[in-house]
Design a protein that fits this description.
D-Maltodextrin-Binding Protein, domain 2; about 400 residues; 6-stranded mixed β-sheet; single chain; about 15% strand; alpha/beta
């Protein structure tokens, strides 16, 4: 019996040591945080933020655990399922509803509501008028134009396409420059990427995926159909179809006139010291610049966290203006969720960053709920059929409508 009792105590100790619940060690509250920023360019900055927080709060200890995008989601799901979730977890914007609707995340509404106007991107963190996650670092996409090709096609140096007709005309003219020159970079059927390139055109034409009460899908509306026809025509007539990375390679090599990409491309140009005559602009809509897709990283607190006040204190610290600026400077990124941070001279003086700041103000997120991950798959399947498999666009959208409605009814 003593042997069994001893083993039980050891097992309990191991369980507690592996759980994400906060412990108190040597008088300090210990918080476990899981995060994805493992890049050597930014990881030291995250560590320094933690060290600064611990210095200002000597009664709190924060332990970091790194995740990868390859299997991080799976690990988070398993941790919440086994009640071993960390106190604080970084979540992608389309992951938050999966856990908030299941009751896994702490309600932080009362603490952050007074400051909501100071941040972009709250939509994924809200469910049933309750806030479950804090926006941290966001990511939107803009139009990149190779000015060398643009000027060869007969345009002035200061030209940027503002609307659909101008974009199509520019891409057509660039495409006609030669056999190995393409007007537009069209994403292949890459999971989690293709729909993000199409939705800005869809939204710009005032189309919606669902009715406001979510009782039926409106993806196959006349507006949605017109947006898909425009995007397909752009891709068919002037597009090089490939992965995001290869499209960006071709763009930097002077083979593509225009691509839609995020600030990671600016970071690559900066880090690799690539010489390119470049323009960035807001993504064109039918008559004038339209919205773009925005996603991002969110910080949430586990409902099982034993000392939520300490966890929230750290979340507020790492997302404050000063620390978002530190992060963006270290990572050469242009999309802080803090509006005050976005006003800093860093985003004014760094070439092309203002395009991202302005686009962020126009950008949108889908109405994300617990079904969104599956809706995303349905939309991408429809796009693949219409763009690359020869299916009629109207039929592809109608099939997507039926699949989405079936998902919500179930």
């Amino acid at each position: 019996m003593k042997h069994i009792l001893f083993l039980s105590i050891i097992a309990l100790a191991l369980l507690l040591s592996c759980s994400g619940g906060e412990q108190t060690v040597n008088g300090k509250a210990t918080l476990e945080m899981w995060q994805f920023w493992t890049d050597p360019a930014i990881r030291p900055t995250i560590e320094q933020m933690v060290a600064d927080f611990e210095s200002q709060n000597p009664d709190i200890k924060v332990n970091l655990t790194d995740l990868t995008w390859a299997n991080g989601h799976e690990k988070i799901v398993m941790a919440f399922s086994s009640n071993t979730a960390p106190d604080i977890v970084e979540l992608g914007s389309d992951w938050v509803p999966e856990f908030s609707t299941a009751g896994k995340l702490a309600d932080i509404t009362a603490d952050v509501l007074p400051d909501t106007a100071q941040f972009y991107g709250w939509t994924p963190g809200i469910h049933d008028n309750t806030i479950y996650a804090m926006p941290w670092i966001l990511g939107t996409r803009v139009l990149y134009v190779n000015k060398t090709l643009m000027k060869r096609a007969g345009y002035e140096d200061n030209f940027v396409p503002l609307n659909w007709p101008q974009l199509k005309e520019m891409c057509y003219k660039i495409d006609s420059l030669g056999k190995d020159i393409y007007g537009f970079g069209s994403n292949a059927a890459e999971k989690h990427r293709l729909y993000k390139k199409f939705l800005p055109f869809f939204w710009a034409n005032r189309a919606r995926i669902m009715s406001r009460d979510r009782s039926f899908s409106t993806i196959a509306s006349d507006r949605g159909y017109a947006a898909l026809l425009y995007y397909k025509d752009l891709c068919d007539s002037t597009g090089m179809v490939d992965t995001q990375r290869r499209l960006e390679d071709a763009f930097l090599d002077g083979k593509i006139g225009a691509v839609i990409s995020g600030d990671w491309l600016l970071k690559r140009i900066h880090n690799e010291q690539i010489e390119i005559d470049l323009a960035t602009s807001l993504i064109p809509g039918p008559q004038y610049p339209g919205p773009s897709f925005v996603g991002g990283e969110y910080l949430a607190i586990s409902e099982q966290c034993q000392h939520k006040a300490a966890a929230l204190k750290f979340v507020r610290f790492i997302t404050n203006t000063e620390n978002q600026l530190r992060f963006c400077r270290a990572n050469f990124s242009a999309n802080p969720s803090s509006k005050t941070a976005a006003d800093d001279s860093f985003f004014v003086e760094t070439p092309h960053f203002q395009t991202f700041v302005k686009q962020l103000g126009l950008s949108r997120m889908p109405v994300i709920d617990e079904h969104w991950v599956y809706v995303e798959d349905i939309i991408e399947t429809a796009l693949e059929k219409a763009l690359y498999q020869g299916a009629p666009p109207a039929q592809s959208l109608y099939e997507a409508k039926l699949e989405i409605e079936k998902l919500y009814k179930e």
